[in-house]
């Protein structure tokens, strides 16, 4: 086992120990009341109860599946749209001049503030929830893809042109591979943003999803259920980030990284 992994395990174990000490009666009485912070054992017990009996008529797995469906729909649509558009902007100054200003203007806009408007436009179904994720992620991925293209070494392109490569071949063999690290970085950043936006999307006009479960439980002061929901969302984000890293290591090594 590597030294880094040992450090990671020690850090995680240390956090659990501090959490347990704060919430158990090791000092005669819990330093933090269970209403504000349940003990790790209480959270595990709540998780087991939710896994066996569900929450508000749906199983825990069903809530998770609904949340993942919303996330992957929004995330997948964004990648399919934002990456090609970002690459196009990076390669064409006219396209950049047309599309970059509205994208840059929309980037700092608080997307959750648009959720009521999206519900008016698209109704209370799933479309508004997916659209809010797309709106949040599109500027990040498209701008990153554009910058990745513009950072490709000019000498590489000139060398390919000197060897007689066509524009299509230059894009496939030089520009796109060299842009992949920047694209994957934006994808990893967008995973965290997407999970956060999923929480916001499940705040309104829904009765399912892990984030909705946590938010609904907060209304009834069910702190342990809130923590279970928050920890599941954190685990989902972490696993997706690990998957993105593994995919990057598998794809980018052959051409997207500098030697």
CATH class of the largest domain: Mainly Alpha
Strand content: under 5%
Q: What structural class results from the helix and strand content?
A: mainly alpha
Shape: globular
- In whole angstroms, how far apart are the ends? 28 Å
Number of helices in the DSSP assignment? 10
- What Rg, in angstroms, do the CA atoms define? 23 Å
CATH topology of the largest domain: MetI-like fold
CATH structural architecture of the largest domain: Orthogonal Bundle
**Which sheet architecture does the biggest sheet show?**
none
* Fraction of residues in H or I helices: over 70%
What's the CATH superfamily of the largest domain, by name? MetI-like
Structurally, the number of domains stands at 2
The total count of strands amounts to 0
User: What series of H and E elements makes up the topology?
Assistant: HHHHHHHHHH
Mean pLDDT reading: 87
Task: Describe the fold and architecture.
- The chain has helices spanning 3-23, 40-53, 60-91, 93-106, 115-122, 126-150, 154-162, 167-201, 210-219, 223-251.
- The protein is mainly α.
- The protein has two domains: 1-37; 39-254, MetI-like fold.
- α9 runs antiparallel to α10 (223-251).
- Mean pLDDT is 87; it is low at 255-259.
């Amino acid at each position: 086992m590597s030294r880094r992994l040992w450090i990671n395990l020690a850090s995680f174990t240390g956090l659990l120990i501090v959490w347990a000490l704060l919430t158990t009666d090791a000092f005669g009485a819990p330093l933090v009341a269970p209403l504000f912070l349940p003990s790790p054992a209480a959270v595990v017990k709540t998780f087991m109860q939710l896994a066996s009996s569900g929450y508000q008529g749906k199983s825990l797995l069903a809530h998770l599946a609904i949340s993942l469906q919303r996330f992957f729909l929004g995330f997948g649509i964004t990648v399919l749209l934002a990456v090609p558009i970002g690459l196009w902007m990076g390669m064409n100054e006219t396209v950049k001049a047309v599309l970059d200003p509205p994208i840059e203007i929309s980037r700092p806009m608080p997307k959750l503030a648009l959720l009521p408007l999206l519900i008016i436009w698209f109704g209370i179904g799933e479309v508004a929830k997916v659209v809010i994720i797309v709106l949040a992620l599109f500027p990040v991925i498209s701008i990153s893809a554009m910058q990745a293209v513009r950072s490709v070494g000019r000498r590489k392109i000139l060398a390919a042109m000197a060897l007689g490569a066509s524009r299509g071949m230059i894009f496939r063999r030089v520009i796109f591979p060299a842009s992949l690290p920047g694209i994957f970085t934006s994808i990893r950043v967008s995973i965290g943003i997407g999970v956060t936006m999923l929480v916001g999307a499940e705040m309104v006009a829904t009765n399912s999803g892990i984030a909705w479960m946590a938010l609904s439980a907060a209304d009834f002061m069910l702190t342990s259920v809130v923590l279970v929901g928050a920890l599941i969302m954190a685990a989902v984000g972490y696993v997706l980030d690990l998957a993105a890293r593994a995919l990057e290591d598998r794809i980018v090594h052959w051409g997207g990284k500098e030697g």
